[in-house]
Amino acid sequence: MKRLMLTGPGELRWEEHPEPELSGPGQALVRPVALATCDIDPAVLRGAFPLPGPYPFGHEGVAEVVAVGPEVRSVAVGDRVVVPFQISCGSCRSCARGRTGNCRSHPPLSTFGLGAMGGLDWGGLWADLALVPHADAMLVPLPSGVDPVAVASASDNIPDAYRSVGPQLAADPGAEVLVIGGPAAPSIGLYAAGLAVALGSARVVYLDDSAERLEIANSLGAEAIEGPREARVGRFPIIVEAAGGAKALRAAIDATAYDGWCTSVSVQLQDVALPILDMYTRCCTFHTGRAHVRPVIPAVLDLVAAGRFDPALVTTATVAWDESVDALLETPMKLVAVR
Ligand SMILES: [Zn+2]
Ligand SMILES: [Zn+2]
């Protein structure tokens, strides 16, 4: 089969590789049909993120099931499924608590398409075939009527956005949301804005200095405000920091209301000083960390199926599979490759 290899900063190439084969009763083989870039991929391709390769590339996509082991019950050959980027068994103590990003049955950081971060190489999704080790626990069938191209980023970035507003709005219905958008997690910030609108927030403010992202935020139903990330636009009970860097993080914490939640979905590559006394005084709940994507993917897909959230509005480039390499190297914000 063919698979796409990231061989270094700005270097991608297709290579021939032996096809994966089922080796356990709970596994599935899938054929990716719509692939998306994750927000860290453009940075990786520019050499600005510490995952330089070489490794098989791609960790966001929808695939068609082509073979299943005898114990697989929840999916069948021909189903179209979201493939979560994190490897999870579904039965260990962490998975039982919904902490599927820290599954204890495999080394920490076990994922598709990001190299052997956890010690094992699980292959990439930008390939003719991928082996899913726990089909029932991992794969999520698409509801009827949902376009695989629209939800190609439901493996990682859309559920990552959901965790920053979904549980918070469930606990505080209608609460106002501020998203500080920017280049570190650009699509996650936009998905968060769109999901907050879909989940009934009374007001969703999206702050950014990019005309492209502001226009997308507006199309998702958010109130788009142009300005630097440290602009004061008020205090909010729910804050999402997606811009990256110390200024944005500090601005997000400063904008968090009493008893508010602040979630940083950007990956801060440097240490950042935090105003702990202010946070204590305001009873600020601050969360950062990798999202546990698998448990929230069905909720995301339900919102799309119901017509309440359209993630396709965030996609900035769509190409045919064969044109992937050139398109990836142009590093658009959100690329989807289709076959
Ligand atoms: Zn990712
Ligand atoms: Zn597990």
Account of the protein in words:
The longest helix is centred in the middle third of the chain and has 15 residues, at 157-171. The protein contains ten helices and 16 strands. Strands 3, 5, 6, 7, 8, 15 and 16 form a seven-stranded mixed sheet that branches. The chain is an alpha/beta fold and 339 residues long. The radius of gyration is 19 Å and the shape is globular. It binds zinc ion (2 copies). Residues 38, 40, 59, 85, 156 line the site of one zinc ion. Keywords: Metal-binding, Zinc. This is Alcohol dehydrogenase catalytic domain-containing protein.
List the keywords.
globular, 339 residues, alpha/beta, binds zinc ion, six-stranded parallel beta sheet
Name the assembly state. Answer: single chain
Task: State the end-to-end CA separation.
Answer: 15 Å
Report the sheet with the most strands, covering strand number, pairing sense and barrel closure.
Answer: 7 strands, mixed
Q: Structural class given helices, strands, pairing?
A: alpha/beta
Unreliable stretches (pLDDT < 50, length at least 5) are none
Mean pLDDT: 97
Spell the H/E element sequence. Answer: EEEHEEEHEHEHEHEHEEHEHEHEHE
Estimate the strand proportion.
15-25%
The Rg value, from CA coordinates, equals 19 Å
Kindly state the percentage of residues in helix. 10-25%
Count the DSSP helices.
Answer: 10
Number of strands: 16
Region (Disordered): 1-25
Domain Alcohol dehydrogenase-like N-terminal: 24-142
Protein name: Alcohol dehydrogenase catalytic domain-containing protein
Domain Alcohol dehydrogenase-like C-terminal: 188-280
